[in-house]
Design brief:
The protein has 1 helix and 6 strands. The chain has 69 residues and is mainly β. It has one domain. The longest helix has 7 residues.
Length: 69
């Protein structure tokens, strides 16, 4: 029986110019909003924090110092 990757969270290793799958899936969850991000739409992540973001605005917010959030 073939295993489906639909509706499954992927685990990724984030690199400066891309990411590498560690476990299969079709989406990741935004580290801030928990929004599902399809892998084909994933554009923003942190290499240092190893976490994905749903948008550029959310990514910028995630990198603000705590006192500015």
């Amino acid at each position: 029986m073939l295993m489906s990757n639909r509706n499954k969270v992927a685990k990724l290793y984030y690199m400066p110019n891309g990411f590498r799958p560690l476990s299969s899936g079709d989406h990741v969850l935004c580290a801030i909003t928990s929004e599902q991000i399809p892998l084909e739409d994933l554009r923003y992540w942190s290499v240092e924090k190893q976490e994905p973001y749903a948008s550029a605005q959310i990514s910028a917010q995630a990198h603000l110092p705590e006192e500015e959030k």
